[in-house]
Amino acid sequence: MGERPTNAEIGDYAIREHHLFEVFKQGKRPSKEVLAGLQMLSEDHFIQLSKQAIVPWIDKMIVEEYSHHEKFFGYEFDLTLFRKTLSIVGRGRVEEWRKMGLEVHFLPDILLADSGVRAVSDLLNLPGWHYKLSFRYWEWLSDRNLLFTGTESEKVPVEANLGGIVVLIDTRAKPAYNAGHQMFSDDDKYLGSIIRELRNKGKMVRYEKGPETSRFGISFNEWEKYIHPILVDKLGVKLAQVRMETAIESHIISQIYTHMPRAEENTKDISTWTWCEEFLESKKRQIFINSGSPAEMLIGVGWQSPLVRSFAGAIRPIVVLAKE
């Protein structure tokens, strides 16, 4: 830990913090001068100042979210909903979720591709979007064949949009394939304990390749029928708020939030995949997202029967806390 900040630094930062507080209350963007002042402080000093309660915890998260968005998208978004949601949820629950390996973030309402786009080269040009879903996904999307189940069980066409949602994200990286023995890191505190109990009770098939806590070898139907309702209770949210990540969310999240362990997924050929919320034409063909191809900077997608259990396929839920 570095030295304690000087009184001058504390005084200057208090002025900046007051400005932040006022603009955040109004749902506005802090000035570039204030943000520049924040970036001039060392990380150690920033931590010291935070401990002295000069920086409210919500404001700190908002500043960090602005930074993530600017690096990936190249511009900023209104974070009023993000701030409101954090205020409602409270610091205690945010910290509780963080201990489970989960973080609260905001995915802005931005259209990444027009409805007719079929080629990767025609996608929106963003400074941080280096790894793209393969052409197959964009062809499915253009043909309106990618669907997901809406709030009243209707089939809704998927759009290439992040949706303007406040989400609870699993920060863990997909592990590299190891004949089914691979495991998500430190997962017992999140999904592992739920999966083990269901397998031990005989509600789900036992896992042959490793610990019963493994996320691998689980069908999409088993996720929906058994794991989903228990996870909802554990997180203290509603059933409709929890689902699998979409393919667009999955590969974009790993590039926006580069501090997360999962950021490495797109840069390595790890040969494991996760179920996605979308399906292709019917619920008999559930989408999954594969690992990246570093050489081509493309990420594979495919489909499987929702009944399939694979030693290479796993589940990774996302929680929608609020939507614009």
Topology of this structure?
Elements: H1 7-25, H2 32-40, H3 43-51, H4 57-73, H5 80-89, H6 91-99, E1 102-107, E2 132-133, H7 135-142, E3 146-149, E4 155-157, E5 165-170, H8 188-200, H9 220-235, E6 242-244, H10 247-256, E7 273-280, E8 286-293, E9 298-304, E10 313-314, E11 317-323
Parallel strand pairs: 2-9, 7-10
Antiparallel strand pairs: 1-5, 3-4, 3-7, 5-11, 6-11, 7-8, 8-9
Helix pairs in contact: 8-9
Summary keywords:
324 residues; alpha+beta; seven-stranded mixed β-sheet; 10 helices; 11 strands; 37% helix; 17% strand; globular; disordered N terminus
Give an overview in words.
The structure is a single chain. The protein folds into 2 domains: 1-55, no CATH class; 120-323, no CATH class. Residues 1-5, 7-11 and 46-55 have low confidence and may be disordered. It starts with 6 loop residues before the first helix and ends with a strand. By secondary structure, it is of the alpha+beta class. Helix content is 37%, strand content 17%.
Number of beta strands = 11
Q: Which consecutive residue ranges, at least 5 long each, have pLDDT under 50?
A: 1-5, 7-11, 46-55
What is the straight-line distance between the termini?
40 Å
Secondary structure: helix percent = 25-40%
Dominant shape = globular
Q: Taking Cα atoms only, what radius of gyration do you get, to the nearest Å?
A: 21 Å
Overall mean pLDDT: 85
Count of separate DSSP helical elements: 10
Question: How many domains, in number, for the residues?
Answer: 2
Name the structural class: alpha+beta
* Main sheet overview: 7 strands, mixed
- Order of helix and strand elements from N to C terminus: HHHHHHEEHEEEHHEHEEEEE
Q: Could you tell me the strand content as a percent range?
A: 15-25%
